[in-house]
Amino acid sequence: MNTQEQTASKVVLSVKDLNIQLKGSTDGTGQPKLLVKGLNLQVRAGETLCIVGESGSGKSLTSLAIMGLLPADSLQVSSGAIDLDGRNLLQLNSGQMRALRASQLAMVFQEPMTALNPVHRVGKQIEEVLKLHTNLSPAQRRARVLEMLEAVHLPDIQRIYESFPHQLSGGQRQRIVIAMALILKPRLLVADEPTTALDVTTQKQILALISELQHKHGTAVIFITHDFGVVAEIADRILVMNKGKVVETGSRDQILAAPEQEYTRMLVSSVPSLVPHSRAQPQSDAVLEVKALEKLYPKAKGFLRKPEMVHAANDVALTLRRGEILGIVGESGSGKSTVARCIVRLIDPSSGEIRLKGDDITTLGRRALLPLRKRIQIVFQDPYRSLNPRRRIGDSVIEGLVNYGMPREEALEKARQAMDMVGLPRQALDRYPHQFSGGQRQRICIARALVMEPDVLVADEAVSALDVSVQAQVLGLLEEVRSRVGVGVLFITHDLRVAAQICDSIIVMKSGRIVESGAVQQVLGKPEHAYTQALIDAAPGRHWDFQNFRAFGSEQAALAG
């Protein structure tokens, strides 16, 4: 949207001096504890306002306040106004707000599986919106739903209508949620991290879909995200939040190319570049060798029929050297996490070889595998679910050492050294997981893995759920750890930017097979396979050099995609 269009278009939403407080809590001066303080924003018809900031900045609280969905037992709007087309939503009762939701304002959440009822068919769930807000007949409602399913570019809409959520892919489920949100053509759409968990190609399709429907119906969009690549693609204006306050606001180019505030500069410059660094390939000894690895799963079979087998991993081969970071990238269902879990022996491979410093662990039983397990460790995506909330950090970190027979005091000393290595105070061992941020918890998970002194560390989407600033810190930590202790790192990710900055070598997987592999500069800088080229082309914001606050020149843009 250009400046003239913004001036001419009508303000759909206006938030004025919004304060959100935590009930029953006060700050150091005895005043109510405010989680959002004096927030002001406007969104015009057909405009996309991106709200960015780290976890705890207040961006999601703002969206819930706009939708009237703040938990009444703990949070409340203490002052301010939220005007939708001139009508203050804060003066409406719960019944009036229910009537406005879907018809005038709608929301798309990050995880579609939590937004959809797992025991009802998706067509009926969309139809429920029409049933509540219109007088259409059942036949008319079904026709409208099918029309909307077609509008969001879903295939075989009759089948999709009759499907349950678990029968659809993540991208298809998110399209269902978008169809549900937009079927009544609301004036305002609030999208809270709707593409964070999606692959780059699916993400590109969802962003294009929202933009298409937005321009078709003139919908105002508030898009909440920590992904600056997405921001660079879709934002008309950007609002930056930190600790409940607006730090800076302006057009996309103003914020990304000429940010005024130090906090904004820190956020933008933390975004990794898609252009890989030039780095020498490791020539050290191999710590992990995988040959002809296969993992097959049976499809559902009919009566007295042999089940058809599906290859989740097919003829996968790789070599990881000491001190090397080897990335595996690909879309969901490409087989990258299956390969990782086979290597760690969380699942049993169907055939092939997995050699850990020459020892074949492919067919070892649980008892025989036990002595080798400490030599290969894994860090999972979600640090919140990786730690037992009822155990102190120290007990979680030393658990493996104690299980292998190390005396508790000796194990605790190694845990203290691991805390030093990951940049956390030794006193952290006496605390519980809820006392730490997401980035700190991921550091603890890395410490728990490193304390075992493994030969191989598998990081499965270990930074995808983190803010860009925290992500940069964790990536720096992994880089430092591999150079200091020489551990080989197998880095599983769908984020090509992260892979470009941290990996020495890279493997691209599609449908269980490796389609391209080599040095990161070659694979991402000069991709040969069409699938790799499609992944790079789908990466949002690929024409922006965030660390230098500028768009790429034509030569660099060509290199990036």
What are the key terms here?
single chain; 3 domains; six-stranded mixed sheet; Rossmann fold; alpha/beta; about 550 residues; 23 helices; globular
Brief sketch in words of this structure:
Residues 15-268, 288-536 form the ABC transporter domain. With 561 residues, the protein is an alpha/beta fold. It contains 23 helices and 22 strands.
Oligomer, anyone?
A: single chain
Largest sheet: 6 strands, mixed
Rounded mean pLDDT is 87
Number of helices: 23
CATH architecture of the largest domain: 3-Layer(aba) Sandwich
GO molecular function: ATP binding; ATP hydrolysis activity
Protein name: Peptide/nickel transport system ATP-binding protein
Organism: Acidovorax temperans
Keywords: ATP-binding, Cell membrane, Membrane, Nucleotide-binding, Transport
Overview of the molecule:
Residues 15-268, 288-536 form the ABC transporter domain. Keywords: ATP-binding, Cell membrane, Membrane, Nucleotide-binding, Transport. GO terms for molecular function: ATP binding; ATP hydrolysis activity. It comes from Acidovorax temperans. With 561 residues, the chain is an alpha/beta fold. Helices cover 38% and strands 26% of the residues. The protein folds into 3 domains: 1-104 and 187-269, P-loop containing nucleotide triphosphate hydrolases (Rossmann fold, 3-Layer(aba) Sandwich), CATH 3.40.50; 114-185, no CATH class; 282-372 and 495-561, Rossmann fold. The model is unreliable at 2-8 and 554-561 (pLDDT under 50).
